[in-house]
Write a structure and sequence with these properties.
This protein has 204 residues and is an all-alpha fold. Helix content is 66%, strand content 3%. The protein has helices at residues 28-51, 70-99, 108-133, 145-157, 159-173, 177-203; strands at 9-11, 16-18.
């Protein structure tokens, strides 16, 4: 394997390391454009969360002037916080590989779409938890906005764990009748075996 210090040649016009094998590295202009995008996206997400924070039942936005219900604000803050978590993961990985001069062009879509994945995961997790933890028709004031934002950001930051949790919820909700019957048969078999052992012990 070649490294920037041995065997690989540096393209001085592009400012990147070019290796003889593997995907091409990101060019200098691509690095600058992506860095500027990340520099704008992070503060924009934080400002948007502050603007739409569910502090009251019908507060006006700090910059928008719109009067939104608390429920609507929760639905807006959830994907924004999920995007923020995905942004943190994306930028951390981006900077690490850029510093090691291993930033591959084929991975750029992953870096750019990661915040969107965080948005979708946070929204799905919020709907699943909201539907299971709160009674139908419960007031939105019973929902802690800080907890919603924290869970949403964690879902975007740790997408694999969030997907695993959604998978567990889906397996519980959509468990087939055959699985339920098999589990019931296993429990009945264990109960019969236990009674048989007790009968044999009493006879002896």
């Amino acid at each position: 394997m070649t490294t920037p210090g041995s065997g690989s040649q540096r393209d001085r016009t592009r400012g990147v390391w070019q290796t003889t094998s593997g995907p091409a590295h990101v060019e200098l202009m691509g690095i600058i454009a992506t860095g500027l995008l990340f520099a704008v996206l992070g503060p924009a997400l934080v400002i948007a969360i502050i603007i739409f924070w569910p502090s009251g039942a019908g507060d006006s936005g700090l910059l928008t002037g719109l009067t939104l219900s608390r429920e609507t604000r929760l639905l807006l803050v959830t994907p924004l916080a999920g995007a923020l978590g995905g942004y943190i993961h994306s930028v951390t990985s981006y900077v690490a590989f850029l510093g090691n001069r291993q930033l591959k062009r084929s991975w750029m879509a992953w870096y750019l779409l990661r915040p969107m994945i965080g948005m979708a995961l946070a929204m799905a997790l919020y709907l699943a938890l909201r539907g299971g933890l709160f009674a139908t028709g419960s007031d939105s004031t019973a929902v802690n906005g800080y907890g919603v934002a924290a869970i949403s950001a964690l879902a975007g930051l740790f997408s694999k764990q969030a997907v695993d949790k959604l998978r567990e919820i889906a397996e519980t909700v959509f468990k087939s009748g055959q699985q339920n019957e098999a589990a019931l048969s296993d429990r009945l078999g264990q109960a019969d075996a236990s009674r048989s052992d007790q009968t044999d012990g009493g006879a002896r």
